[in-house]
Write a structure and sequence with these properties.
The structure holds three protein chains of three kinds. By secondary structure, chain A is an all-alpha fold. Helix content of chain A is 71%, strand content 0%. The radius of gyration of chain B is 25 Å and the shape is flat. Classes of the chains: A mainly alpha, B mainly alpha, C alpha/beta. At the A-B interface, helix 7, helix 10 and helix 13 of A face helix 1, helix 6, helix 7, helix 11 and helix 12 of B.
């Protein structure tokens, strides 16, 4: 052992043997990192599945925003040949009315993804704020009323409930968004309330109450920043669920109505082509394109959310 | 009263209240039809008397609460009214009773669900438990990736993939489930194979992930670590210490996924044109055939509620704190 | 098999040399134990003391060759009765655990399987490792329950974990550890979570059983007085290194190192008591309950003189924290009233004015949960400055710096997050937050109970100084008599929601004592190794043992 090590050891021992001073306390300190440092470290450690997911999501977002520029033809532009084969002017052929499948796929990104996103945001707004408010007033009549109502609403499977309500109110896009947002807000309520309850029992929330802070301050500044990780993860999961539900309803014919290009209804419209697989493989693949588009985005979001959950639960273990 | 019995009764009560509320919601769906729906259903050429007679038959001239009680009584005794389809403007009523429409289809749907459940439940449990025990191994990560992908697929995508590979190309199985009333058991199995397979794949994925999560949670509890510190071999730790506490979460997972089956069945039935309650309901929604929608929805809701109630009750009776109160 | 013959008392049983253990956190490996030696003889009890984070539990578990998930034993040798645990196979180690080395965890409630009966779990290791046949093991378990002074020793084993109390569960866990007659038991803070009066019973039982069966033990704790009762030798750890190793009596009488001496000196503070006629807060015959049926406060009255400290003492469930909630308005009284500066306070928090809220501040036990982890120190202390005093910008920052100086921390701390501070520093920030409001009365709810003893002293000294300089009044809620002696002028003793006694410190802490106070005071361990023995002998004489 060389002398330097000896010296370091004994000076450390001396340090350890000193008496007590406030600033001299050294606990198990966590190094402070800026937000951008954290993001970079996160990205470096991401598994290939999450990177793949993030890449796919970015591509979809770009297509959705720039649909008008990317699509070769119009969304509802009808050409004289229906069921045209792939290739030439129509990369993926035309559908039963003679509309270009590729263009409709691109516009579908805008419509389906856009509508699903708006619906999820709405669900979060409703469910999130009610959930946090219920947690703050834990066990009050408001909390009990909301929780029981949510229990009852959740007792009916979403798809069935959506079908019922759509049959009652008619299947328009606005109705679709509102109905699914309300139905999904129940799940958001549950999770927002559950994670908020963990935070609400913390002394710092009580300290804020004792100070005289109002409900809105407590929600925004004390609770919300501390429940972001699970809520962000839940946003991803809810988005997938909403997205799949809207696609399913459109597939069943009671969701987004034609002529709006939407992946779910596109599957329904071209489903018949599957039978011709032996004769014309590409034609048979036509309905699979919008279906695959749905599946790919959902897989991508799930991969990213899975990694995110893994990271944030890992953080908890460390502390 | 023993706390277990009291808790079970509370749950049953809650289940009944929920069914009651569901019935109210379904009942009110009739209220939202536009005022002239009588003409819309019977046709433009219907006479005012025919329309009036139709409305009387539906009890629309009675006050709401009386109508509700009539309707509820009907539901409970098996009379769900008659379908809106089959009514002509001439007053000729060839509509069929809703129960008559539902009964054979209910049989078909239950058959399909049972086929899917029997295959998926044991397989999913096995995969989930082994993945949790060999956490982070190659096996676990592979299974994880595969199930994550599968649960991301919409059911119709899985269905069409199966049709593409097992039907259109290879002609192994039919893509349309033409189940008449006189098929034999094995014919039925053959015709239902693809739809059942679709459901199975979807359910296995969900169930396996939830089981894995539940078991991982369980293995992280302090008393499991204590069992290790007592030097017990791993098999005994799992069998004697983990398993007795695993019933509640596992049964909850199973019940939850069987309830999910109720929802998945609708899309699958439509893809394969399988004559079940799901397909009936979707058609009825498209045509706004309210009595049929009400009947189908009631059945789905009741099944869902019952399954969740069952899971709840199992959790209660396996909870040692409730079984052996202080 | 477990048939190795027991050696003589005095032989070396466990020899750990140069142990290095790493822990994984914050994305990298840190050294938790940095080269520690530990030698234990047969039948010897070693007290392992140190602050939290010193690595005591990790070291204790390492003696079994066990590392918690997230930890790795990276160096050194561990020889247990001639067996090299670093080289032994997983199976060999497994056979040792539960039969020759056993472990008593800190939380008994979490360590028992809720689905199995107590007696099944007690005999499990002995039976599984084939130390005894089952019937014999069960009979022996009942004998152990009797030795450990558990009530109904023949039938308590048939119960489930949730059906017995915390102290009883801890004793059953000790029985479980003794059942295979191990050579070594590791006690990991077994009485930390228990009330002082229960602790006495458990300590006595543990010591008795360890002596009777000539078992060696490592007793891990941060409570010095407790370790004085149990151990033959003491090892002091700090930051993963050994500070001092000595015989108990020798170490208590003349500790060598500065740090060790400072641990001992915590109990040396004692405030001189004062009294005053000017009453700032008067709690007048207050009743309160949560659900309406069971009273959590029953006819509670107390008067708090201005500028003084009133200590409210009691065990868990005594109602001391509940009284604080009633005073702050979180739990409105169902009867009686609370007067502040002569004026009655509105019973509910919502009805109070900002001025009223400002004048009464609260400091909590756990500084971790008392501060929002996402806010910087600047925000945490700055908010009351904005909210109550309307200070913003430069004026606010100036006041912030003044406050930081008062709590003896420098300005580099201002932009940190709570997670970057140590326990004592966090509590100081909470004190600054309370001071920022310029209150008259501060309620300190067990503010030092979660801190290591050496840190406690610093905080108490700070609070005393601030009281002197600013004329603050404190209501100090605690269960620790040493703290009470250090900081209070008056004492209020509570039991089960009622005030059992109140008066000046000198009156209360000198005889004659009413029953409960006597029980409470005498149960507090003292630094004398013979204290426990003496206490038990006295109690035996008086037959006032509480089950």
């Amino acid at each position: 052992m060389n002398n330097e090590d000896d010296m370091n050891q004994s000076s450390e021992a001396e340090l350890a043997d000193q008496g007590y001073s406030a600033a001299g306390e050294v606990g198990l300190l966590k190094a402070r990192r800026t937000v951008s440092e954290n993001i970079w470290r996160g990205l470096k450690s991401a598994p290939p599945s999450a990177i793949f997911g993030m890449a796919v999501i970015s591509i979809y977002i770009l297509i959705a925003i720039f649909a008008r520029l990317l699509a070769p033809h119009g969304e509802a532009e009808i050409f004289p040949m229906s069921y045209a084969p792939w290739g030439g002017e129509f990369l993926f052929g035309t559908d039963q009315l003679g509309r270009d499948v590729l263009s409709r796929l691109i516009y579908g990104a805008q419509n389906t993804v856009g509508i699903a996103f708006v619906t999820t945001m709405l669900a979060f707004l409703i469910g999130g704020s009610l959930g946090i408010a219920a947690a703050i007033n834990n066990n009050s009549w408001v909390d009990n009323l909301l929780s029981r109502s949510v229990d009852v609403l959740m007792a009916i499977p979403s798809l069935i409930f959506a079908l019922i309500l759509l049959s009652m109110f008619g299947a328009t896009t606005i109705n679709l968004i509102l109905i699914i947002a309300v139905l999904d807000s129940t799940r958001v309520f549950r999770i927002a309330r559950a994670v908020s309850l963990n935070v609400v029992v913390m002394d710092y929330v009580e300290a804020a109450k004792l100070r005289g802070e109002g409900l809105s301050w407590i929600m925004r500044r004390e609770i919300l920043p501390n429940i972001m990780p699970p809520l962000v993860a839940e946003f991803g999961l809810r988005f997938c669920f909403v997205f799949l539900t809207i696609a399913a309803l459109s597939f069943l014919g009671v969701g987004i109505q034609p002529p709006t290009a939407d992946w779910g209804s596109m599957v329904r419209e071209t489903a018949g082509l599957i039978q011709f697989a032996e004769y014309d493989l590409t034609a048979a693949m036509t309905p699979m394109l919008p279906a695959a588009a749905i599946a790919l985005l959902t897989v991508a979001v799930n991969f990213v959310v899975d990694w995110f959950l893994h990271k944030s639960s890992g953080l908890k273990d460390e502390q | 009263m023993h706390p277990v019995i009291r808790t079970i009764l509370q749950r049953l009560g809650l289940g009944l209240v929920t069914l009651f509320v569901v019935s109210l919601i379904l009942f009110s769906s009739m209220e939202f039809l536009p005022g002239d729906f009588g003409e819309a259903i019977l046709g433009q050429s219907a006479l005012p008397e025919t329309v009036a007679a139709f409305r009387k038959e539906l009890g629309l001239d009675l006050p709401m609460h009386e109508r509700y009680l009539d309707w509820l009584r009907g539901m409970l005794t098996g009379d769900m009214g008659n379908s809106f389809s089959g009514r002509a403007s001439s007053g000729n009523d060839r509509s069929r009773a809703v129960t008559e429409l539902i009964a054979p289809r209910l049989q078909n749907t239950l058959f399909l669900a049972a086929m899917a459940a029997i295959i998926s439940v044991p397989l999913a449990l096995f995969l989930g438990i082994t993945a949790a025990l060999y956490r982070n191994s190659i096996y676990d990560r592979m299974v994880n990736a595969m199930t994550l992908t599968t649960i991301s697929f919409p059911e119709f995508f899985v269905a069409y993939l199966l049709i593409l590979f097992l039907s259109s190309f290879t002609h192994l199985f039919p893509s349309l489930a033409n189940i008449g009333s006189d098929v034999t058991f094995w014919e039925r199995v053959y015709l239902s194979f693809l739809p059942a397979l679709t459901l199975t794949l979807v359910i296995i994925a969900h169930m396996m992930r939830m089981t894995r999560a539940a078991i991982i949670n369980l293995m992280a509890t302090p008393y499991i670590e204590m069992a290790e510190l007592k030097g017990l071999p791993k098999s005994e730790v799992i069998l004697r210490h983990a398993l007795p506490n695993a019933w509640a979460p596992i049964v909850t997972v199973i019940a939850f996924n069987l309830a999910y089956l109720v929802v998945g069945v609708v899309v699958v039935e439509v893809v394969f044109v399988y004559p079940g309650v799901g397909q009936l309901m979707v058609d009825a929604v498209t045509t706004r055939d309210v009595p049929v929608v009400q009947g189908c929805a009631m059945i789905f809701a009741a099944t869902y509620i019952l399954l969740n109630l069952f899971a709840d009750i199992i959790s209660i009776i396996t909870n040692p704190r409730l079984l052996h109160p202080r | 098999m477990n048939n190795s013959p027991k050696g003589q008392k005095g032989d070396v049983l466990l020899e750990m040399r140069d142990i290095v253990i790493d822990g994984y956190s914050d994305d990298r490996w840190h050294e938790i134990i940095k080269g520690v030696d530990l030698v234990l003889k047969r039948g010897e009890v070693m007290g392992l003391i140190g602050e939290s984070g010193a690595g005591k539990s990790t070291l204790g578990l390492a003696s079994m060759g066990f590392a918690k998930p997230g930890c790795k034993i990276n160096g050194g040798t561990i020889i247990f009765d001639g067996i090299d645990l670093m080289k032994a196979s997983a199976d060999e180690k497994r056979r040792l655990r539960g039969s020759r080395i056993t472990y008593v965890a800190q939380s008994a409630a979490a360590s028992f399987n809720p689905s199995h009966r107590l007696i099944d779990q007690t005999v499990e290791s002995a039976v599984r490792h084939q130390v005894k046949p089952e019937k014999e093991a069960r009979a022996d378990a009942r004998k152990l329950y009797r030795d450990l002074q558990l009530p109904n020793p023949d039938s308590i084993g048939d119960r489930y974990p949730h059906q017995v109390s915390g102290g009883q569960l801890q004793r059953v866990m000790t029985a479980m550890a003794m059942s295979p007659r191990p050579d070594l038991i590791i006690f990991d803070e077994p009485t930390t979570a228990l009330d002082v009066t229960t602790q006495v019973e458990v300590l006595a039982a543990m010591r008795h059983v360890v002596e009777q069966y000539n078992t060696a033990a490592i007793y891990i704790t941060h409570d010095l007085a407790v370790v004085a009762q149990m151990a033959d030798v003491i090892k002091v750890l700090r930051y993963g290194e050994t500070i001092e190793d000595a015989d108990t009596r020798k170490m208590l009488a003349s500790p060598e190192k500065e740090y060790t001496r400072s641990l001992w000196s915590v109990r040396s503070i004692e405030k001189e008591e004062e009294d005053s006629e000017d009453i700032i807060l008067k709690v007048d015959q207050v009743d309160a309950s949560y659900t309406g049926s069971v009273k959590v406060l029953d006819n509670v009255s107390m008067s708090v003189p201005r500028g003084n400290t009133v200590a409210v003492v009691g065990e868990s469930g005594s109602g001391k924290s509940t009284a604080a909630r009633a005073i702050t308005g979180l739990l409105p009284p169902s009867k009686g009233q609370i007067l502040f500066n002569g004026e009655p306070l509105p019973p509910r928090l919502k009805d109070r004015s900002i001025k009223q809220l400002q004048k009464i501040q609260m400091i909590y036990q756990m500084a971790d949960t008392a501060m929002n982890p996402r806010q910087t120190i600047r925000d945490i202390i700055g908010r009351p400055l904005e909210f109550y005093l309307g200070l913003r910008g430069a004026k606010r920052d100036k006041r912030l710096l003044e406050l930081m100086e008062m709590i003896e921390l420098d300005e580099s701390f201002i932009d940190r997050l709570p997670a970057e501070l140590s326990g004592g520093q966090k509590q100081r920030i909470c004190i600054a937050r309370a001071l920022a409001a310029e209150p008259d009365l501060i309620i300190c709810d067990e503010v030092t109970s979660a801190l290591d003893q050496i840190v406690q002293k610093g905080i108490l000294q700070l609070l005393l100084r601030l009281q002197q300089e600013l004329g603050l009044t404190y209501i100090f809620i605690t269960h620790d008599i040493a703290t009470v002696k250090a900081i209070s002028d008056q004492i209020v003793v509570m039991l089960e929601g009622r005030v059992v006694e109140q008066g000046m410190k000198s009156e209360i802490l000198s005889p004659p004592y009413p029953d409960y106070t006597k029980l409470l005071l005498s149960s507090v361990p003292e630094m004398d190794p013979d204290w426990l023995t003496g206490l038990l002998a006295e109690r035996e004489k008086e037959k006032t043992i509480v089950p």
